[in-house]
Amino acid sequence: MKVVSIIGRSGSGKTTLIERLIPELMKSGLSVATIKHDAHNFEVDKVGKDSWRHKNAGAKMTIVSSAKKIALFADSNGDSSLESLCERFINGVDVVLTEGYRMSKYPKLEVTRVENGELICGAANNLKAIVSDYQFDRGVPVLKPDNISEIAEFIVKLPDLDEPDK
What we know:
Elements: E1 2-7, H1 14-27, E2 32-36, H2 50-56, E3 61-65, E4 70-74, H3 82-89, E5 95-99, E6 108-111, E7 127-131, E8 142-143, H4 148-157
Parallel strand pairs: 1-5, 1-6, 2-5, 6-7, 7-8
Antiparallel strand pairs: 3-4
Helix pairs in contact: 1-4
């Protein structure tokens, strides 16, 4: 399974890039999963819904299942590592695109715009490419954000990873 982290400052276009990469990678016959890191305490379950009521009653984990999708709500004792999330929850896919996880050991593509200021990642952090209309001289390719096929091809050509780089 290939894991690639899409990183960048807030407002840089990370979510839009991932949204556009998913169908492009699928055109190549690849199955894709995503993991989004959120530094804040987010809520996705709605107050009053059955799953919320189960968790609110004290269940450590609640799963909602239908013919079309499955959702899992679980307690966490801290921020889970990308490695542990992949191991516990991701299977049967070719590529995992993450939004965030800039401190993980997995390969990264940093999305940036001129107004975002300095890059947040360097080669020592396994930066493989920069996605920007602005040119950078950081020893990695600069890919244009509108050239989704080129970015997808770049990801496909990254070596498959059974575990993060050492």
